[in-house]
Write a structure and sequence with these properties.
The complex is a heterodimer of chains A (120) and B (294).
Chain A: H1 2-10, H2 23-32, E1 39-42, H3 51-61, E2 66-71, H4 77-82, E3 87-90, H5 95-110
Parallel strand pairs in A: 1-2, 2-3
Chain B: H1 2-97, H2 103-133, E1 139-142, H3 144-157, E2 164-169, E3 175-178, H4 182-195, E4 203-213, E5 216-225, H5 253-265, E6 269-276, E7 279-291
Parallel strand pairs in B: 2-4
Antiparallel strand pairs in B: 1-3, 4-5, 5-7, 6-7
Helix pairs in contact in B: 1-2, 2-5, 3-4, 4-5
Chain lengths: 120, 294
């Protein structure tokens, strides 16, 4: 909850729809939203289901959602892009980097942009 | 007459018997030799099989060690970066909360810079290990623009400092056979020239020319700085791995050994000279040679 408050209060005022503890929870949470979030910040190495597995299922439910991978596992970068992730940020990243990435994803969502973010 | 004929036949028969005896003796000798050879062959074969078995065992234990090292490397880079991420985010959120003039703010900035340093170290270790595992493929690359981007990156990294970086190049289209790691080479050399610099304004001049050496056409890049300089006994050591771990020495350590490994992979050369010959305290000249392509 502290994280949720901090993200909404201090990180550019985005509204946080929910925080999941693993990939499976993320899928179920995403299914449960009548008003789907526009951006998902996704880790990869998580219990029950990995970020890649969760992203595949979530994108099958809603192709428009922009998934930003935030992971210390750089070996999955290419795979993340290949399954349709919006972008990949390697940990550790700064908050400014994260805000920039979320804004870019939101812009793309609103413009119904279908392409991935540039692979920096 | 009859007796004489019999005598002759007996002689012939004797000769034949002698020849036969000789052939039998020869055959026995060959048989013995063959037996010895066979024994030796069996011995060699069992030695050979033993060697093969030992090689298989070494291969297996090498693979186990390799997999263990890979596991530790993965654990190290993944988990350390996760820890660094938690510290970095926490510190940046505190930074935003605390008054700018507060003393704690200074401490927070030190923590943040150390976290970023740790992240850079992890990245460098990963790159070094990648370079050792596989010789990354080289492509024809235009590097003048990469250099300009690296200069912008360095200037942006030290926004609070006035830094002068000048480029004097034979051309603005410089093609060499390298890969994306060339950016790390430029950034490491440029950042060192700013980081280990006591001048009021750090100044770097990058001179780019062409040089032929042993029939190979090279692009020669000289990074001349007004930093603290490198004394003669340290000129080669700074490129050695682990050198910067000596606390009595400014820690250029892993950064420059990474640079050297990358340049070696490009079939190039790197060394350091005094900017002003004979007076190292006036700054350094890092010389990089990279094979040129048309």
């Amino acid at each position: 909850m502290a994280l949720k408050w901090r993200v909404s209060q201090q990180m550019g005022g985005f509204k946080v729809a929910g925080i999941a503890a693993n990939g499976d929870e993320a899928i179920n949470m995403f299914k449960s939203f009548s008003n789907k979030p526009k951006v998902i910040l996704m880790d990869h190495r998580m219990p029950v289901k990995t970020g890649i597995e969760a992203a595949i299922e979530i994108l099958q439910i809603d192709k428009r959602v922009k998934i930003i991978f935030l992971s210390a596992d750089v070996s999955i970068k290419e795979e993340a892009y290949s399954i349709g992730a919006f972008s990949f940020r390697e940990k550790p990243f700064t908050i400014n980097d994260l805000i920039y990435e979320i804004n870019k994803a939101l812009e793309c969502y609103n413009a119904t942009c279908l392409i991935n973010s540039s692979k920096e | 007459m009859m007796n004489e004929e019999n005598e002759n036949n007996r002689e012939d028969l004797k000769k034949i018997i002698d020849q036969f005896k000789q052939e039998v003796a020869k055959r026995d000798q060959l048989k013995n030799e063959l037996k010895i050879t066979l024994e030796e062959l069996n011995l060699s074969n069992s030695e050979y099989l033993l060697t093969i078995k030992k090689l298989e065992e070494y291969k297996e234990s090498f693979l186990k060690a390799y997999n263990r090292a890979e596991f530790y490397k993965d654990l190290f880079s993944h988990d350390i970066n996760n820890i660094l991420q938690a510290i970095l985010s926490g510190m940046q959120l505190c930074e935003a909360e605390i008054d700018d003039s507060s003393e704690i703010q200074k401490d927070i900035r030190i923590i943040i810079s150390q976290v970023l340093r740790g992240a850079k170290l992890v990245l460098n270790i990963r790159k070094l290990s990648q370079l050792e595992e596989i010789k990354l493929s080289l492509n024809r690359t235009e590097i003048y623009n990469i250099l300009i981007n690296s200069i912008d990156f360095v200037k942006n990294s030290y926004k609070d400092k006035k830094i002068k970086i000048k480029v004097d190049s034979v051309s603005k289209q410089l093609y060499v056979q390298v890969n994306e790691l060339i950016r790390d080479v430029f950034e490491n050399i440029l950042i060192n020239a700013v980081k280990y610099n006591k001048s009021v304004i750090p100044e770097i001049e990058v001179k780019i020319s062409k040089e032929q050496k042993l029939g190979v056409n090279y692009l020669k890049m000289e990074f001349q700085d007004n930093a603290v300089g490198i004394s003669d006994p340290r000129k080669e050591k700074i490129f050695e791995r682990g050198y910067g771990q000596n606390k009595n020495v400014h820690g250029r350590g892993l950064g420059l050994s990474l640079v050297k490994t990358i340049i070696d992979n490009f079939n190039g050369e790197i060394w350091v000279e005094d900017r002003i010959n004979g007076d190292y305290s006036k700054g350094s000249n890092f010389v990089v040679l990279i094979p040129e392509v048309n």
